[in-house]
C-alpha cells in the first residue's frame, strides 16, 4: 500500500509532497515538484513519464484556462474555437476574435512540445507566435527559399495555406505566413468565428511588440523576411509598418531574453477594460495590463 500527501501554503506560493510505501525508493518514482509550479504524486506502480507530463499540465493547463478567462473578462472577447488539429504540435488552444484579427492561447499537453521548451527558455508564460496574412504566399515562399529561411511546417488546404518559419532563422518569435480564400475568412478560427466577435471594448489588434538585446538587427531581419522597410521611431526602438498593423522591436529589459513581449489593441471602452483589469490585479502603476506574461497596450 502507498500513501501520498500533497500540500500547498495558504498563499499558494509553497508546495510539498511526501510518499510512504512498502516499495523501495518510491521517492525517486512517485513524487514530483517544481518551483512556482506545484507538486504531485503518481501511483506506486509508477510510470515515470507521468511526472514530467503532470508538471507540464500544472505549469500550463490550469494557467492557460486562467489566461483565457482573464483575456475574455478584461477585453470583453469570447472564445470562438478550440482547434483539435493543434494536437499535432502537442498543444491545446483557444482562439478569440478581436474584430477581424485573432488572439490565440496555446498550452502544451506534451512535455516534449516545442512550445514547452519555449516556456522553459523564457521562464514562464509569454508571447509565442505571430501569424501574418499575406497576399501572395507563393512569392513569399520563394523569397524565404532565396533568403535561406527554413520551413518547419507547411499545409495547403482549399481555403487556407500556412507556412511556419524556423524560429532560429527569424528570431523573435515563431512566424507563420498564411493566405486565406476568400481573404476575409480564417480557417484556423473555426467555421462560426464571426458569431463570436464582440466589439464593445476592443475591436482589433493594431501592433505586436518583440523585445531583443539587439532590436535593430531583429527588426532588419524581419524587414528582409517580410520585404518591408524598418524605421527607427525612437532611440533603440524600431518599427515595421504592415497593412493596418505594425511590428515593433524594443530592447529587452526584463531578463527574459528575446521574444514576443506584447500587443496593442484598438480600444472602444478604455474605462471598462481598465476596470476589469484592476478587479483582477492585472494593471500596473503605468496602467499597463499584463495577462499570461504578455503586455497589452490600449490605443484609442
Please provide a written account of the structure:
This protein has 300 residues and is an alpha+beta fold. The protein is built from six helices and 17 strands. The protein has a seven-stranded mixed β-sheet with strand order 12-13-14-11-15-17-16, covered by helices on one side. It has two domains: 2-48, no CATH class; 59-299, 2,3-Dihydroxybiphenyl 1,2-Dioxygenase, domain 1 (Roll), CATH 3.10.180.10. Helices cover 24% and strands 36% of the residues.
Q: Please identify the top-level CATH class of the largest domain.
A: Alpha Beta
Radius of gyration: 21 Å
Continuous helix count: 6
Distance between the termini: 62 Å
- CATH homologous superfamily designation of the largest domain: 2,3-Dihydroxybiphenyl 1,2-Dioxygenase, domain 1
Biggest beta sheet summary? 7 strands, mixed
Number of E-type strands = 17
Mean pLDDT: 89
Judged by helices, strands and strand pairing, the structural class is alpha+beta
Low-confidence stretches: none
Please specify the SSE layout and strand pairing.
Blueprint (H helix, E strand, L loop, with lengths): L1 E7 L6 E7 L9 E4 L3 E4 L8 H26 L15 E8 L2 E8 L5 H8 L7 E5 L3 H11 L3 E6 L3 E6 L1 H4 L3 E7 L21 E11 L2 H12 L3 E5 L2 E5 L4 E6 L7 E9 L2 H10 L9 E3 L2 E6 L1
Parallel strand pairs: 7-10, 11-14, 15-17
Antiparallel strand pairs: 1-2, 3-4, 5-6, 8-9, 9-10, 11-15, 12-13, 13-14, 16-17
Helix pairs in contact: 1-6
Amino acid at each position: 500500500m502507498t500513501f501520498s500527501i500533497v500540500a500547498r501554503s495558504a498563499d499558494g506560493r509553497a508546495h510539498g509532497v511526501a510518499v510512504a510505501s512498502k516499495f523501495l525508493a518510491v521517492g525517486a518514482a512517485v513524487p514530483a515538484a517544481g518551483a512556482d509550479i506545484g507538486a504531485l504524486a503518481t501511483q506506486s506502480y509508477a510510470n515515470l513519464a507521468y511526472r514530467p507530463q503532470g508538471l507540464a499540465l500544472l505549469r500550463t493547463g490550469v494557467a492557460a484556462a486562467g489566461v483565457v478567462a482573464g483575456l475574455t473578462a478584461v477585453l470583453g472577447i469570447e472564445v470562438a474555437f478550440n482547434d483539435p488539429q493543434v494536437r499535432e504540435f502537442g498543444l491545446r488552444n483557444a482562439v478569440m476574435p478581436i474584430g477581424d484579427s485573432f488572439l490565440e492561447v496555446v498550452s502544451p499537453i506534451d512535455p516534449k512540445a516545442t512550445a514547452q521548451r519555449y516556456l522553459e527558455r523564457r521562464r514562464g508564460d509569454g508571447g509565442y507566435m505571430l501569424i501574418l496574412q499575406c497576399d501572395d504566399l507563393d512569392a513569399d515562399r520563394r523569397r524565404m527559399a532565396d533568403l535561406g529561411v527554413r520551413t518547419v511546417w507547411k499545409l495547403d488546404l482549399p481555403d487556407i495555406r500556412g507556412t511556419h518559419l524556423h524560429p532560429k532563422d527569424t528570431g523573435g518569435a515563431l512566424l507563420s505566413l498564411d493566405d486565406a480564400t476568400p481573404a476575409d475568412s480564417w480557417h484556423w478560427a473555426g467555421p462560426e468565428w464571426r458569431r463570436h466577435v464582440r466589439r464593445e471594448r476592443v475591436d482589433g489588434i493594431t501592433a505586436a511588440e518583440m523585445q531583443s538585446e539587439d532590436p535593430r538587427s531583429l527588426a532588419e531581419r524581419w524587414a528582409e523576411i517580410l520585404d518591408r522597410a524598418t524605421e527607427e521611431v525612437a532611440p533603440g526602438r524600431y518599427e515595421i509598418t504592415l497593412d493596418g498593423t505594425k511590428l515593433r522591436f524594443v530592447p529587452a529589459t526584463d531578463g527574459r531574453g528575446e521574444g514576443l513581449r506584447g500587443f496593442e489593441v484598438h480600444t472602444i471602452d478604455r474605462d471598462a477594460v481598465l476596470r476589469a483589469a484592476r478587479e483582477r490585479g492585472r494593471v500596473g502603476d503605468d496602467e499597463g495590463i499584463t495577462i499570461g506574461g504578455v503586455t497589452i497596450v490600449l490605443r484609442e
